[in-house]
Amino acid sequence: MKQGISTHVFLAQRLTPGLLDALTRGGATAVEVFAARHHFDYADRGAVRELANWFRSNNVDASLHMPLFSSDEDSNWSRHTAPVINLIDLNKSTRIEAMDEVKRALESAEQIPFRSCVIHLGLKGDRWNTRALDDSMTAIEHLKAFSSPLGMQLLLENLNNEVATPAHLVEIVRAGHFDNVGFCLDTGHANLVEPQPETRDQEAKDGIAQAFEDFGDRITELHLHDNLGNRPENGKDEHLWPGSGTIDWDSVAKRIAALKQPPVGILEIAHELGEDMKQIETEFRAAWKKLGVVAQ
Does this entry carry the keyword Isomerase (predicted)? Predict the structure, then answer.
């Protein structure tokens, strides 16, 4: 399994080659670039060229995470800014604006050798219904037509809304016959899902076990981070280093090992933890040790 990390750990800062160097010193062989204009300005040709030169000079796989903020919100970004880009918004003009912003980020693949892009469908509170299914298929069709010539695969990520559950994402892909669309299993999001109760025919499963089962062998990428689970006093997507929350990482490691094709593992860690470069390198290696992998 490729050992990677998201630049989300540096989200409050402008992304520079020096920060990418710090990630590779920790052992990363894959980097997911988080598309936020204050961090990676994908609309700035100079910023795109700078990252393109770095990736072409280093033996590191590149992937992209779609933007979650519009350009207006991004200019006033803080760690309390809520995502606003919604590809399946009820308002058609809002959906079109969201699609255009994601396409602007995808255009950076003309220079940066991104292999994939992680896609979010919906925001917190979005409901699963026929309209959501249709709008999801329309969004994927448009983005797929735009990204495929650039050599990018779209990866749908499980979220904590009704639309982007693993089971519903699989249904969207099947209904749209999107054979070349993959999945990104986010462990932190899955850990916030209420466990399914035990039945006569089936044992109880937590959210992570159910996500692995629903996605099956179409998992292309993993977002690896921890939290304190779905306790009433918590329920937060904290993006902690593995081992700092309630996830059973031994179980996760076994499920990863059982996949037919090893996915890319991306540590997606909170940017407000206040760690310095050396601490990030140390935590990176410790995280992979928990997953039974020695960081390179």
Answer: yes
Residue 13 domain-assigned (yes or no): yes
Which amino acid, one-letter code, is at 252?
Answer: V
Average pLDDT, the chain: 91
CA distance 70 to 98: 8
Residue range 120-166, pLDDT digits in tens: 999 999 999 999 999 999 999 999 999 999 999 999 999 999 999 99
**Tokens 């039945």 belong to residue:** 199
| pTM of the model as a whole | 0.93
Query: In total, how many domains does the chain have?
Result: 1
